[in-house]
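Hello support,

Our group uses your service weekly, and this is the first time we've seen a run hang past the timeout. The protein is Calcineurin-like phosphoesterase domain-containing protein. I'm not sure whether the cause is the sequence or the server load. Input pasted verbatim:
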Amino acid sequence: MRIADLGTLRGPVIAYGGTLANLAALGALLREAGRAGVPGDRLICTGDIVGIGGQPAECLAATRAYGHTVVAGNIERQLAAGAADSGSGYPPGSVARRIAAAWWRHTDRQVTAAQRDWMETLPDIAVFAHEGRRYAVVHGGGTAPARFLWPSTPAEVFAREIEAIAAAAGPVDAVIAGHAGLAFERDISGLRWINAGMIGLPPHDGRRGGRYLRLDADGARILRLEYDPAPAFAAMVAVGLTQGWDLALMTGRWPCTDMLPEALRRGC
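Update from on-call engineer: The timeout came from a worker crash unrelated to the input. Re-ran successfully.
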């Protein structure tokens, strides 16, 4: 397991995930970072830069050019390995897995050999200190990058993931994660588990835009990322990615919810 120690970060820090080949969303995040005075080396991505959307190579190039720290998501790991699918952890036979076949083919065609080599070097966990707290950043969980953890997941499941992270990277005060696509916070025996959400798609709540996390002197805040999704929608349509995630950009509702717990399927 690769661990990246970023040392002590001073000033605001932005954590985000799930760009999902949505260049419009990434551009909006960069503008927000500029307004907040957050340089590229204090932007941390929880992974899944690509997948689902229409502009994977462009998003990878921009993320690297701005110097963001990136924790490998399941998609980065699968692309680096030359795998046949995204390894997203969707249930067998699910609509989500069927839809994924189209966007995986597009992503696999567009990502270059050099970009795959870079993905191979990405850490599984990044750790840093900020305002007296030690944070670990993972993609899904400590036991697997494609681990789905939801607001309703039992506390003992979170505890096992935290134990795995601590065993690999040392004790922490908070964990920042992604993968599930829903931004939320949980208190697990005094440790904060914070899902930063995703910027590339809305969180199935009927509203456009994404979510991201900002750390300031007074703690962590989950923030909305507002942007015009029309360019990302057009990019998906132009390459034939019209299986439902394109419409989700416009409606704020996912085309499939079979990866969600039953209580969340009607909308978050």
